């Protein structure tokens, strides 16, 4: 699994920076390929095409999710490249959990209605340096990711002509196209992937 941690914080070397470092290490120890990057509201996010999972989060400041992450949904191409990506969310904040789930997480989730949210967690200040809490979050991501892949592969049938078309795609791109097409078919409720479905998915993804 290739994962990118996209995050924001105003405090360089602060609690979120340290948390993201530990999260990356914990995930890498499971064999995943992990990169991390700080959000910028006007960045080019086309690079996230290369990742299977986007782990996304930030602190809350004055009741708003940190601005470079939140702003990326409005000012950059983040939303475009997140299309149908599997996403895991986290927040770091001082508020009690129910309040954070009710008031802060929706600030991210309202932009992710077409995404599969693998898991979401609000980390209290104490949990940010708690290795067990971080490992549990990583376990939840991996478990949900594997489950999502299994569900997809079990249900979909590739028609012969679609398989032939897939085989003609250079191997470097083939798996990415296969996954994107399966995700599209799953979302549309198709049980069988035909050449027409591949064309539809291609038009949608362009
Ligand atoms: C200026 C400031 C404003 C904050 N506002 C909130 C808030 O409105 N709600 C909340 O739950 N936590 C709030 N917090 C707590 C932070 O979200 C929390 O401490 C977080 O872990 C800080 O991350 P950082 O160390 O990367 O900056 C605030 C913290 C600071 C410093």
TrEMBL record:
Membrane-spanning ranges: none
UniProt cross-references to InterPro entries, sorted A to Z: Flavodoxin_dom, Flavoprotein-like_sf, LI-POR_suB-like_C, P-CP_red_C
One Pfam family of this chain: PCP_red
Domain Light-independent protochlorophyllide reductase subunit B-like C-terminal: 158-202
UniProt GO BP: chlorophyll biosynthetic process; photosynthesis
The protein's name in its UniProt record: Protochlorophyllide oxidoreductase
GO-annotated molecular function: oxidoreductase activity
Domain Flavodoxin per the UniProt entry, residue ranges: 5-100
């Amino acid at each position: 699994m290739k994962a990118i941690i996209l995050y924001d914080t105003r405090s360089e070397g602060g609690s979120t920076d340290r948390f993201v470092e530990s999260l990356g290490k914990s995930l890498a120890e499971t064999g995943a390929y992990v990169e991390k990057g700080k959000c910028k509201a006007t960045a080019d996010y086309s690079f996230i095409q290369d990742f299977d999972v986007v782990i996304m989060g930030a602190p809350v400041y004055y009741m708003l999710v940190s601005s470079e992450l939140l702003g990326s949904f409005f000012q950059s191409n983040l939303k475009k490249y997140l299309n149908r990506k599997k996403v895991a969310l986290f927040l770091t904040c001082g508020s009690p959990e129910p309040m954070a789930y009710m008031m802060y997480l929706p600030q991210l989730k309202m932009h992710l209605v077409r995404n599969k949210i693998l898991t979401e967690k609000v980390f209290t200040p104490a949990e940010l340096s708690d290795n067990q809490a971080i490992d549990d979050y990583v376990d939840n991501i991996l478990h949900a990711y594997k489950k999502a892949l299994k569900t997809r592969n079990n249900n979909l049938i590739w028609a012969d002509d679609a398989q032939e078309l897939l085989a003609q795609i250079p191997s470097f791109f083939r798996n990415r196209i296969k996954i994107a097409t399966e995700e599209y078919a799953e979302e549309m409720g198709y049980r069988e992937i035909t050449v027409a479905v591949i064309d539809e998915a291609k038009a949608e993804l362009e």
